[in-house]
Design a protein that fits this description.
- Helix content is 34%, strand content 14%.
- The protein is of the alpha/beta class.
- It has a single domain (9-387), classed as Ribonucleoside hydrolase-like (Inosine-uridine Nucleoside N-ribohydrolase, Chain A).
- α3 runs parallel beside α13 and α11 packs antiparallel against α12.
- The longest helix is centred in the last third of the chain and has 16 residues, at 289-304.
- It is globular, with a radius of gyration of 19 Å.
- 53% of the residues are buried.
- The chain binds alpha-D-ribofuranose (RIB) and calcium ion (CA).
Length: 390
């Protein structure tokens, strides 16, 4: 691996995706044809949307970049015929919410899925002063190698960024509602059916459950990319990026008594690297919209450095949702997040259930399933297969 700093990994990851080329995953069921014209804006997108209605309903809550791991997760969900993709809710994290909104809209346009709503959400972490405290945090506890959106000024609007998105500004528009309200409305519309797929800071999810706690028993499942449980964090020695960016929201979210919570922590994400060989497998053969994005954004990176590699945090999380049978090792833990400002700010805590302990878990913590290992061959097959789809 040539890029040794985490900042470089994240920064380049903001411009990259993944995939392999074999068969359809077991959960990749044939589409059921049902009309969903209400979410479609064109004849083309109406066709795409109707093909997916009847699948597993999911909201992707993401800190979207351009062909970063959030974007690849979005492509994987959008390309799976087993998914009814209700919407992308955007949160500040890797990027400012205005940037993430533009990137989500534009990339969905480019792959012909502008039927999928994009809903802007929280522009700042829950607690005021998060950015202002970074200076003290760096001095006291060590310099963060990557601070995401905090690295640049916040844009005024999604159509007034410092630089236009890849492919130009989107022509489709974001939804007028707030992300938290969209999550609430969709969960109420489809009680017991919606998976919230949280691959950025948990701010939108925390706002949704705090403003409308009645949705909690109605959510089918929450799947997070977040935390580093049995390893050091990737931003501070204690904390992984998503839960470091907004520790208070992560704490609220994981302490919410959802029916089911699954966490894909950095512990498993660091076991898989995306390399040029994977890029070559995705981009080979007849052209597609996704292959063009890969070639345009990742091609120059690999041309300059064929040894370049990245992690796949959110794409890996998408694979766990799309085909849970690829998980080979998982553990139940009671999960918490340290939200006390100090060297452990944002640290994820996982208490293994212990029949001899009393009490069995810290008050208020909830059980979650931690994904700790995957069948790599089947992961790559799923990943590449979806990203190569026409
Ligand atoms: O720590 C990795 C996570 O932080 C990923 O979700 C990445 O996209 C960033 O949000
Ligand atoms: Ca992310």
């Amino acid at each position: 691996m040539r890029n040794t700093t985490l900042g470089t990994l994240f920064a380049v990851a903001l411009l990259v995706p993944t995939l392999t080329a074999s068969g359809r995953p077991p959960s990749d069921r044939p589409p059921t044809a049902t009309s969903v014209a209400t979410r479609a804006t064109t004849a083309q997108t109406a066709t795409a949307a109707s093909a997916h209605h009847g699948g597993r309903k999911v909201i992707l809550d993401a800190d979207m970049g351009q062909l970063n791991d959030d974007a690849v997760a979005m492509f994987m969900l959008a390309k799976s015929p087993s998914v009814d993709f209700l919407g992308v809710t955007v949160v500040s994290g890797n990027t400012w919410v205005e940037e993430g909104t533009a990137y989500a809209l534009r990339q969905l346009e480019l792959i012909g899925r502008s039927d999928i709503p994009v809903v802007p959400g929280a522009g700042e972490p829950l607690m005021p002063g998060r950015k202002e405290r970074l200076g003290a945090e760096n001095t006291l506890y060590g310099t963060a190698p990557w601070t995401g959106a905090f690295e640049s000024p916040r844009p005024a609007a999604y159509d007034h960024l410092a630089e236009p998105p890849y492919g130009g500004y989107p022509t489709t528009r974001p939804q007028a509602s707030a992300a938290a309200d969209f999550i609430v409305a969709q969960v109420k519309r489809y009680p017991g059916q919606v998976t919230v797929f949280a691959v950025g800071p948990a701010t939108n999810l925390a706002l949704a459950v705090r403003t409308h706690p009645e949705i909690v028993p109605l959510v089918k499942e929450v799947i997070y990319m977040g935390g580093a449980f049995d390893k050091p964090g990737n931003i501070t020695p204690a904390a992984e990026f998503n839960w470091w960016f907004d520790p208070e929201s992560a704490r609220i979210a994981v302490r919410t008594p959802f029916r089911t919570q699954t966490i894909v922590p950095d512990d498993v994400c660091v076991k898989i690297r995306y390399t040029k060989a994977r890029y070559d497998a995705i981009t080979a053969g007849p052209p597609t919209a996704i292959k063009k994005i890969f070639k345009d954004l990742q091609g120059p990176v690999f041309a300059a450095d064929p040894g370049h590699s990245t992690f796949l945090w959110d794409a890996l999380t998408a694979a766990v949702f799309l085909d849970p049978t690829i998980v080979t090792t998982a553990q139940q833990r009671y999960v918490d997040v340290d939200a006390t400002f100090g060297p452990d700010y944002g640290r994820s805590l996982g208490y293994a259930p212990d029949e001899f302990a009393a009490p069995k878990n810290p008050a208020g913590t909830q059980r979650a399933t931690l994904v700790l290992d995957l069948d790599l061959r089947r992961f790559w097959d799923l990943y590449t297969g979806l990203l190569r789809r026409p």
